[in-house]
Amino acid sequence: MPDPLIRPATEADIPAVREIAELAWTPIYHEFRRRLGDELFDLTRPRGVKAKPDEVERLFREHPDCMLVTELEGRVVAFATFFVVDRAAGIGEIGNNAVHPDFQGRGLGRAQYERIFEELRRLGCHYVRVSTGLDDSHAPARRAYEAVGFDRELPTITYYREL
Ligand SMILES: CC(C)(COP(=O)(O)OP(=O)(O)OC[C@H]1O[C@@H](n2cnc3c(N)ncnc32)[C@H](O)[C@@H]1OP(=O)(O)O)[C@@H](O)C(=O)NCCC(=O)NCCS
Questions:
Q1: Which tens digits make up the pLDDT trace of 122-132?
Q2: Disulfide check for 98: which of 24, 52, 55, 61 has CB 3.0–4.6 Å away?
Q3: The pTM is what?
């Protein structure tokens, strides 16, 4: 595999980032639809598979310095967002991140997390957190986070019921 280049995102990367987000979240949204049912899924994500691309684009517009992309031979194949969430406590966060499905399992996710650790250390952080799902569609994400050293956890669950 050619050497990946991880660099700050620019406006020109947004179409590729949107496409990666849509493809990477398709299995996750499939699982959400199965668990929530069509009505609740459609109520909570009226834009369907565009929900994550929209969210990621909005994040970039609000925090343009907090997105990285990974290029392979000039093609953007992954992205990741990060934030300082508690400056006083020195805690940073990895936000939405994904690798294009055709390029998953090649170490690009890990490389982005390690780059974010460097960026957050440079910004004065001593800890980093990340939140993810406990459902099957998030198993790759959980494995990838554990593989880069996330070793303490606070499990949570989101319940819904009809009224
Ligand atoms: C999570 C994600 C970004 C990981 O990216 P990736 O480039 O495929 O991961 P890497 O190749 O760097 O693998 C990192 C580690 O996770 C493990 N891993 C990744 N995907 C895995 C899978 N499907 N099954 C088992 N292990 C997996 C790898 O074995 C590796 O561990 P190792 O270094 O000990 O061998 C990617 O799966 C993805 O885009 N998922 C969909 C979107 C998503 O869930 N984003 C996170 C939301 S919280």
A1: 999 999 999 99
A2: 24
A3: 0.97
- Residue 95 structural domain: 5-147
CATH number of 92's domain: 3.40.630.30
**157 occurs within a structural domain:** no
Is residue 144 lining ligand 1, measured as CB closer than 6 Å?
yes
Q: Which of 22, 52, 99, 108 to mutate to test the pocket of ligand 1 (most atoms within 8 A of CB)?
A: 99
Q: Is residue 162 part of a domain?
A: no
Does residue 15 surpass a pLDDT of 90? yes
Confirm or reject: Cβ of 148 under 6 Å from ligand 1.
Answer: no
What's the pLDDT at 1?
80
Edge-first strand listing for the sheet containing 5-8: 5-8, 67-72, 75-86, 91-99, 127-130
Buried b (16+ CB within 10 A) or exposed e, 129-141: bbebbeeebbebb
Residue 156 maps to a domain: no
Number of domains in the chain: 1
